[in-house]
Amino acid sequence: MGSAHPDADIYPEATGPAAKIVAAHQKDEPITLYSGWFCPFVQRAWITLEEKNIPYKYVEINPYNKEPSSTREAWYRRWDVPKKTGPPSR
Hints:
Organism: Cladophialophora carrionii
GO cellular component, one term: cytoplasm
Order of helices and strands: HEHEH
Number of helices: 3
Mean pLDDT: 75
Protein name: GST N-terminal domain-containing protein
Helix content: 25-40%
Number of strands: 2
Distance between the termini: 43 Å
Structural class: alpha+beta
Largest sheet: 2 strands, parallel
C-alpha cells in the first residue's frame, strides 16, 4: 500500500446517473463546482444547483490526490492555508 491516505485510490469520477449530469455540465459557466463525487458536503451544493437550475461547470477533484500535475494544483494553491499550531509570532 503506497498511498498515504486510505481513500487516495478512490474511483476517480462519478458513474451511472451522476456521470450523465457531470457530462452535461462541462462547458464554462459563471459558477464552477469543484467536487469529489463522494463528498456529502459537495452533494448538498450539487443538489441545490440542480434543483434551482443554476448553470455551473462541474470539475472533478480528488482531495486526496497530491500529485503536482493534478487539476487540484491549478486552483487549490491559492486556498492553501499554512498549518500552524500556535499563535502568530510577533
